Amino acid sequence: MATTAEIQQQADAVTAATAYVFAKTFVADLDAMGRFYAEAFGLVENNRHTDVMFGRPISEITYKASAPRETGGLTLISY
Q1: Which of 7, 65, 66, 76 lies deepest, with the highest CB count within 10 Å?
Q2: 55-62, long-range: CB < 8 A, 24+ apart
Q3: How confident is the model over 3-56, as pLDDT tens digits?
Q4: Cα-only R_g, the chain
């Protein structure tokens, strides 16, 4: 049976090997969810954008991907 230290070491290895690449999420409160993702996961805001889609105004925040050399990241969209 594995010790607690061995289990933690395995968990750390999985976390280190896992990288966030890309997702889009629709949210009701863009600023509140933006703060949540930045504080909870340490994501770094890359861009804010406003536009009109299908005649409706949209706002979005894009965060940098955690994987090196990736251009995607998390995008939060509100409309």
Answers
A1: 76
A2: 59/30, 60/30, 61/30, 61/34
A3: 888 777 766 665 555 666 678 999 999 999 999 988 888 888 889 999 998 999
A4: 17
DSSP state letter for 24:
E
- Are the CB atoms for 70 and 78 separated by under 8 Å? no
Distance CA 78, CA 57 (A): 9
Helices (H) and strands (E) in the chain, counts: 2, 4
> CA separation (Å) from 51 to 27, 29, 38, 45?
16, 17, 23, 18
- Residue 20: name the closest of 61, 71, 60 by CA: 71
